[in-house]
Automatic annotation (TrEMBL):
It holds the Pfam family BPD_transp_1. It comes from the Bacteria. It is found in: Cell membrane. Its main location: membrane. One of its GO terms (biological process) is transmembrane transport. Residues 68-258 form the ABC transmembrane type-1 domain. The keyword Transmembrane applies. This is Sugar ABC transporter permease.
Length: 273
C-alpha cells in the first residue's frame, strides 16, 4: 500500500526547499541590480536587468576565465583520482585478506579525525621544498585521495560487493585486478557517483589552502577570485555576488546532470542490501 505524505510533512518539506533555495535566489537578485537599487529603503525582491553588465565587469576586474579553468582542473583531477584510488583501497580493505588490514584501516580512519589546519605548516614546507609554490600542483597533489573517500568506498564495498561473489571470481581464475574491474567497480558505480559529486564540490569550494599556496594574480581559483573582488576599502556587493553566481553555475550544472545517479546512490546506501 502506497503512503502519501500529510499536510504537515509537505509544509515542512516546502519550508526546507524555500530555505535552501533562497540564498541562491537572493544572490541572483543582488547580482542583477546596481548599488543604487540596493541602497533603497525597500530593496528589490525580483531580478533586474544589470546581470550582463555586472558579469562583464567581473571578467574585467579579475581573470575570471582563468579562475574557472583552474578550479575545473583542480576539482576534476581530485574527483577522478579520489574515485579511482578510493575504490581500489576500499575494495582492498573490504574484500582482500592481508596482514595488518584492520590496523591499517584504523590508521586511515584516525587520520580523518585530525584537523586539516594542523598539517598546513609541514605541508607548506613540503610545497616549498618541491618548488610548487604558486603552481596548481600544490593544490592538486594533496587532494588526490582522502581518508573520507577510502572510508566511504570501503563501507560501500562491504555493502554492495558480496564476499561470495569475489571468492567465486577468484576461483574462476580472475586476478585481483580483474576482480576489481569486472566485479567490484560496476557494483560500486552509484556510490562512486555520489563520492565524485561530494569531492568535486569540496574541491571547487576550497578556499583556505589555495589562498596559502597560490598566487592570486597568476593562478587564481574561483574562490580566490571572489576574495579579490571583495577586497579593498569598498565592497561592491552586486559585483561580488555576480562572481558568486557565475562560480556556482558549473556546480549546479554538474548536479543537474548527475542528480538521478546521486539520489540512486544515496538511496541504495540508506536502504541497504
Amino acid at each position: 500500500m502506497r503512503r502519501t505524505s500529510g499536510p504537515l510533512a509537505s509544509a515542512a518539506l516546502l519550508g526546507v526547499l524555500v530555505a535552501s533555495l533562497f540564498p541562491l535566489y537572493w544572490s541572483v537578485v543582488v547580482a542583477s541590480h546596481d548599488n543604487a537599487a540596493l541602497s533603497r529603503r525597500v530593496p528589490p525582491l525580483l531580478p533586474g536587468a544589470e546581470l550582463p553588465a555586472n558579469a562583464r565587469e567581473v571578467f574585467g576586474a579579475v581573470d575570471f576565465w582563468a579562475a574557472l579553468g583552474n578550479s575545473a582542473a583542480v576539482a576534476g583531477i581530485a574527483t577522478a583520482s579520489n574515485v579511482l584510488l578510493s575504490t581500489m583501497a576500499g575494495f582492498a580493505f573490504a574484500r582482500l585478506r592481508f596482514r595488518g588490514r584492520d590496523k591499517l584501516f584504523a590508521v586511515v580512519v584516525t587520520s580523518a579525525m585530525v584537523p586539516a589546519q594542523l598539517g598546513v605548516v609541514p605541508l607548506f614546507e613540503l610545497v616549498g621544498d618541491f618548488g610548487w609554490y604558486g603552481e596548481l600542483t600544490a593544490v592538486v597533489v594533496p587532494g588526490l585521495v582522502s581518508a573520507f573517500s577510502v572510508f566511504w568506498m570501503r563501507q560501500a564495498c562491504r555493502e554492495s560487493v558480496p564476499a561470495e561473489l569475489v571468492d567465486a571470481a577468484r576461483v574462476d581464475g580472475c586476478s585481483v585486478a580483474r576482480t576489481y574491474w569486472h566485479v567490484a567497480l560496476p557494483a560500486l558505480r552509484p556510490h562512486a557517483v555520489v563520492l565524485g559529486m561530494l569531492t568535486f564540490l569540496a574541491s571547487w569550494n576550497d578556499f583556505f589552502w589555495p589562498l596559502v599556496v597560490l598566487d592570486p594574480h597568476r593562478t587564481p581559483t574561483v574562490q580566490i577570485a571572489l576574495s579579490t573582488l571583495a577586497g579593498g576599502y569598498y565592497t561592491d556587493h552586486p559585483l561580488v555576488l555576480t562572481g558568486a553566481v557565475l562560480g556556482t553555475l558549473p556546480v549546479v550544472l554538474l548536479f543537474a546532470l548527475t542528480a538521478k545517479r546521486i539520489v540512486a546512490g544515496l538511496g541504495r546506501g540508506a536502504v541497504g542490501r
